[in-house]
Amino acid sequence: MRDDPGGIGYGVVPETRGLVAAARRALADRPRVRAQLDECARRLDEPLRVALAGQLKAGKSTLLNALVGQDIAPTDATECTRLVTWYRNGAAPRVTARTTDGARADVVVRRGRGAEGLPGAHGLTFDLSALRWNAQEPREVDRLEVEWPSAELARTTVIDTPGISSLSREVSARTSKLLTPGTSGTALPSADAVVYLLRRLDAADVDFLEHIGAGAGAGGPLGVIGVVSRADEIGAGRIDALHSARDVATRFAVELERTGLCQSVIPVAGLLAFAAATLRQREFAAFEALAAIPVDELGAALLSADRFARPESPLPVPPELRAHLVARFGLFGIRLAVTLIRLGVRDAHTLAAELTDRSGLDELRTVLDVQFAQRAEELKAHSALTALARILRANPGSAADALFPRVRTLLADVHGFTELRLLGHLRADELPLPAEELAELQRLIGGAGVSPTLRLGLPPHTDLVTQREAALAAVRKWRARARHPLADQAMTNACLTAARSAEGLLEVLHEPPTTPFPALDPLRRK
Question: How far apart are alpha carbons 152 and 67 in whole angstroms?
Fold first, then answer.
């Protein structure tokens, strides 16, 4: 079975496994190192690890809940994520606190209640005051691990991180240690990719993204997606808030992608996305009641959250439930839900789908699938190789030293890694190509998906011969572009990368054997 879904098949995962196994044999007399190497091997078989990062109160936990579609991360009004928290798939819900020396203790989980028996707007609370350790003395918690039954978490382990501008420097340092371990020390990289949340674009965001980018070859993650979070707040909760947010995201995208710090920037109203994913029938009924009153009367009530929830307001929804709706959906979500019902939405399921679509979550899921999920094997291999490089560098003087040159070569030359780096820097390099050719180059290196037909811009069921012809034409075209006498180094490298991607497609789009005895034809065996 090939190690990447796009069929390029460069074999980086099998070779990485072989290098880790060889290092383990060479360092068998060092138990601590052997445990680190076991971790390198295990992560190749585990789900992709994606970290959520950003400044304080950027909406990381809310976006996590929206992506998973369940209320599993605390989202209270204070700084709730003071610890790095891992969310994994599990047979039953469980939250565990862990220390640096491996001690574990179960965490008490409390769920708040909202109006009229509905779940509380801020969902869960992790109570660390009641921890019971095996030893008598209290211990300092290093991280939390949340196991939860979820199809999303079965594919992707999500790591929620403290804000980089936390009120405590020590809290912020936990995120830096996780995502930018640097070249020295023994800390191994933990995340394969990053979703970075932006409420605004300031120096702290740029500095941190630059650290992530600089660390991609020294332990940091290779893929970074930017999210303009809490997008509904940009338009002050107006019905056109997401249009304003999209304009802001476009500006952020231009500024960030020119520097190569993010591969894409997407606006998302995380609060609305999560509320839509967990919409209750009682909430839908409240929206229906609000949609029945005159537009001007409701508009006046929605001038502010306090005014909307005021007990003396004559609105046909109890004040406690109105306060609940504000906390769950925000003013933007309430306006949008009421408008959709007035336009003809008649049930909770349809309303949830419409709200989700308008929240930007579906677009983010698509980008995450193209940039991360379809390249999961390459991203995990990159993390394992950078971890292996750190281990070998920190433990010289054994037969494992002979492996180090090959590890460095793979990190520098594996074509899948080169494609990811080019996707991140394509706009930064400002290639002198027409728009249609720039789009073709981006598509060919996997910017729209990694399947052969997507790379070649062909319909999904195009026959093999046509695909081969298109791939061969792409090889010739981009090799010729690379040889152009006026092409600078950036242009040459980008064109050669595109040509190599097309050559990789030719390697896997081989013609099927025509003989009824394929095993007897050694030239066609793989």
Answer: 8
Strands 104-106, 94-98: pairing kind: antiparallel
The residue behind tokens 């066609």 is 524
CB atoms inside a 10 Å sphere around CB 294: 8
Enclosing H/E stretch for 176: helix 169-179
For residue 65, what are the CA distances in angstroms to 6, 33, 171, 468? Answer: 29, 36, 22, 43
pLDDT in tens, 269-316: 888 999 999 899 999 999 999 999 999 999 899 888 899 999 988 899
Tell me the pLDDT tens digit for each residue of 505-515.
988 887 554 44
pLDDT at 191 over 80: yes
Which among 59, 249, 223 is positioned nearest to 156, based on CA atoms? 223
Measuring CA to CA, which residue among 274, 55, 51 is closest to residue 158? 51
SS3 266: strand
Q: pLDDT class for 38, splitting at 50, 70, 90?
A: very high
Structure tokens at 469: 């012809």
Bridge-based pairing state of the strands 193-198 and 48-54: parallel
Task: Indicate the pLDDT class of residue 258, thresholds 50, 70 and 90.
Answer: low
Q: Are 57 and 79 in contact (CB under 8 A)?
A: yes
CA dist 151 and 385 (Å) reads 28
Q: Is the pLDDT of residue 6 over 70?
A: no
pLDDT confidence of 268, banded at 50, 70, 90? confident
Token pair recorded at residue 354: 């419409």
Rounded CA-CA distance 390/486 in Å is 40
Encoding tokens for residue 315? 């609105």
Cα–Cα distance for residue pair 505/443, rounded to 1 Å: 13
Residue 305: CB atoms within 10 Å = 17
Q: Which of 358, 351, 331, 337 is nearest to 238 (CA)?
A: 331
